[in-house]
Amino acid sequence: MSMPIGKKIVLTTLLLGTVLILVSIIAISAGSAGVHFWETLEFLTGKSIPDNATATIIYQIRLPRVILAAFVGGSLALGGLVFQALLRNPLAEPYILGISGGSAIGAILAMLIGLSYFPGVTIFSFTGSLLVLAFVTTLAGTTMGNTMLSRDSLLLGGVMMNAFCAAVIMFLISMTRSFQVQHILYWLMGDLATMQKEQLPILLLVLPCFMVIFILARPMNLLLLGRETAAAMGINVKNIVLLLLVITSLMVSIIVSLSGLIGFVGLVIPHIFRLLLGPDHRLLVPSCLVGGASYLILCDLLARILPSSGELPVGIITALIGAPLFIVLLLRNRA
Amino acid sequence: MPRYTHIMLTLVLIFLILPGNILAGPVVDQVGRTLVVPENPTRVIALAPSITEIIYDLGQEERLVGVTQYSTYPPEAESLPRVGSYVRLDIEKIVALKPDLCIATKDGNPKHIVDKIVSLGIPVYVINPRNLQQIMDTITRLGSLLRAEQAAKELVSDMEKRIGRVQARVKKGDHRPRVFFQIDAEPLFSAGTDTFIHELIELAGGINTTAGEVSYPRYSWEDIIVLQPEIVMISSMAGGLAPEYLLNSWKKWNLLSAVKNDKVFVVDAELFDRPTPRLIDGLEVIAAIIHPELFIKSNNQTEE
Asked: Which domains does chain B have, with CATH numbers?
């Protein structure tokens, strides 16, 4: 504990970075065409040259997907962390708060109109997420800092917003021509398979979001002490909260428009790291980013190799792991 | 002399192997895309059950290295490697099978997956048959793609002959009964104008009561009573329900002339849901149901 914070950040990030690289190599070496860990390692280190089909599978099918999983996992974990800090609620998460649902409505509307993934679907999805965010936070009365409404009202507002979004999504789907339905349904379940290589550059847009959140890690620590205290320590609470909420929603919308609804990553990862590393956000931000990436790469690997034929949408795996954990956390919070 | 034959044999073998690598000129597929295909494709993946079926019909199954889920006809196709279902193709498996040609359908395979396969350097020929004439065109195209022109020609002329035979007989009928074709139950769906089922009903001398813009419109019992069908056909796959159950669901509506006159039939779904030559079997079944007086009794299938 006596280690200076800078050194601690570097060490933790290096350690988690190594895990990320290892997990990525495993994910790249396994799939429906077979699992070849050592061979893949030999290809990556240049010891042998893969044949045409294997090279295509590794570099053009699995690698882009692992990159996508890393970005999606990192962003969602970070999104969860930020929401939990800002709303001072350990159960806050973009999916549970209905923000993912709002951005899904926007995205589906854009898909039905026939807009391209970028910028059309992303902009619609961002708008949807902002609307839900505004509604949920206003409802809970926590954004502008005067009241300390109970965490239940925030969660309930989110759950209701989620239910409402689900109804709107079902309505949109029921109005859709048959062949589009399949695509939208899988996208809703959270699916990294529909990803196309051309969409990868869009992911770069979340990098500035990462930077802003990392820079604001210290103010986030102070916000945890309470808004009055933070203000007394020279923090412009209103601006910082607003900036963080908008940046995080933007990040989540970009991710949702690419990968659909993948829930609970933003709940599982920040909780694990808070348990391991304590409450300092300067440490938690990079850890959640890199840890979330590894986690979703692993979940996606399970989604790809568990079924004997075909694959599962990764959102099913994350929900199967995350929902029970949510209940455990809820019980512990009550105790 | 023996040495000479040896060399000849080697040469012959080389020539047998070589064409696999020779690329034919660019061809245009059924959706207007231009692509370069191997002159003699030897590793073909059929991306939908209907395509598998046509390739078997052409006798070219030896070229097939992969098919999709539900490729159940002919039964031999079940032993081929699967590459996912037609809406959810497993691209990794496709690449691993090292195909030199994939054949896709516009109707079933999502465009972005087809684009992805193409971007990986695998030629994809897309078919898009919308009616019987275009199915025959598809067969001719696949025949020339797979060097089975003669088989394709025979298959098409057989189909034409059978369609002609049905048309000739139906012409003799003086009444065109009103037909309701139920493709799904709970909820109840029927077939609109832009479907093979509509085409078959009209060819078989009936009137499709659910003709209209929507391909697969949903119906309520109220709508059906207004439609007053004289003949009802139920797809055997409807709702995954038992044929007896499906028939019974109609029984209580005996104000319908179809029910009153015992004209409710369950028909084999396999003959109607894939754009293949088996649709002609379906045509013959439907024609015999609509105009039993014009067809030999033995043609009449699965009567209630």
From this structure: 17-155 (3.40.50.1980), 172-299 (3.40.50.1980)
Residue B89, classed as helix, strand or coil, is: strand
Q: Which residues of B touch A179 (CB under 8 A)?
A: 107-108, 110
- B97: nearest CA partner in chain A: A53
One digit per residue, the tens of pLDDT, for chain B of length 304 reads: 455 666 655 555 554 444 444 566 789 999 999 999 999 999 999 999 999 999 999 999 999 999 998 898 899 999 999 998 888 888 999 999 999 999 999 988 988 889 989 999 999 999 999 999 999 999 999 999 999 999 999 999 999 999 999 999 999 888 999 999 999 887 888 999 999 999 999 999 999 999 998 888 888 888 898 899 999 999 988 878 888 888 988 988 888 999 999 999 999 998 998 999 999 999 999 999 999 988 865 444 444 3
Which residues, in sequence order, are bridge partners of residue B127? B105
Number of CB atoms found within 10 A of residue B172's CB: 10
Give contacts of A196 with chain B, Cβ < 8 Å.
112, 115-116
A186 touches chain B (CB under 8 A): yes
CB-CB contact of A62 with A125 (8 Å): no
Contacts with B43 (C-beta within 8 Å, 6 or more apart), sequence order: B63, B65, B97, B98, B99, B100, B101
Q: CA B290 to CA B206: how far, in whole Å?
A: 7
Which CATH number applies to A5-334: 3.30.300.10, 3.30.505.50, 1.10.3470.10, 2.40.50.140? Answer: 1.10.3470.10
C-beta separation of B91 from B70 below 8 A: no
Q: Any idea of the CA torsion for A74, A80, A86, A92, to the nearest 10 degrees? A: 180
ipTM field: 0.71
The structure's pTM equals 0.79
Domain residue ranges of chain A, discontinuous segments joined by +: 5-334
CA distance B85 to B124: 17
Nearest to B83 by CA among B62, B63, B104: B104
Pick A57's closest partner by Cβ from B82, B87, B95: B95
Verify whether the Cβ–Cβ distance A33 to B93 is below 8 Å.
yes
Helix axes B278-290, B132-145, angle to 10 degrees: 160
